Amino acid sequence: MVLLDNSNFILRLEKIANAAKKDSSFTLTFKRYDGNDKPVPREGRPPLPKPETYMCLMRAQSKSQKISTVVRQEDVPAMMGMYSQFMKSKMDGLKRVKKVKSKAKATKG
């Protein structure tokens, strides 16, 4: 997994989305991140230190590519602005789902 800065993450995410538009899909996940890369210690060992502020870990994954970035608390508004612009530009291929009425409802109404 490649850890990128926020602006490069959005640029690479656009490339992944363009590649996935043809024949596949991609996933994007958000997770609260406290900066610890170590697992939780066993009983009897000192616990990991609590962070002063939490961060957000964003991960994107397609078939063969995995990228991630860590968004600090002060960078959240700027990153969400870039992310919303990305979503608005790439969500043009969605199709409207038609509601299917069941036969029972169709005969009553």
UniProtKB/TrEMBL annotation:
Q: Where in the cell is it found?
A: Cytoplasm
Main site of residence?
A: cytoplasm
Q: Which GO terms describe its cellular component?
A: signal recognition particle, endoplasmic reticulum targeting
Question: Would I find Aminoacyl-tRNA synthetase among this entry's keywords?
Answer: no
Keywords, A to Z, come to: Cytoplasm, Ribonucleoprotein, RNA-binding, Signal recognition particle
Pfam families documented for this protein: SRP14
Q: Which InterPro entries match?
A: Signal_recog_particle_SRP14, Signal_recog_particle_SRP9/14
Q: Which Gene3D superfamilies match?
A: Signal recognition particle alu RNA binding heterodimer, srp9/1
Quick check: keyword Zinc in the entry? no
Task: List, in alphabetical order, the Gene Ontology terms for molecular function in this entry.
Answer: 7S RNA binding; endoplasmic reticulum signal peptide binding
Q: Example GO biological process term?
A: SRP-dependent cotranslational protein targeting to membrane
Q: What does this protein do?
A: Component of the signal recognition particle (SRP) complex, a ribonucleoprotein complex that mediates the cotranslational targeting of secretory and membrane proteins to the endoplasmic reticulum (ER). SRP9 together with SRP14 and the Alu portion of the SRP RNA, constitutes the elongation arrest domain of SRP. The complex of SRP9 and SRP14 is required for SRP RNA binding.
Complexes and interactors: Heterodimer with SRP9; binds RNA as heterodimer. Component of a signal recognition particle (SRP) complex that consists of a 7SL RNA molecule of 300 nucleotides and six protein subunits: SRP72, SRP68, SRP54, SRP19, SRP14 and SRP9.
**Which family is annotated?**
Belongs to the SRP14 family.
Identify this protein by name. Signal recognition particle 14 kDa protein
Organism ancestry: Eukaryota, Metazoa, Ecdysozoa, Arthropoda, Hexapoda
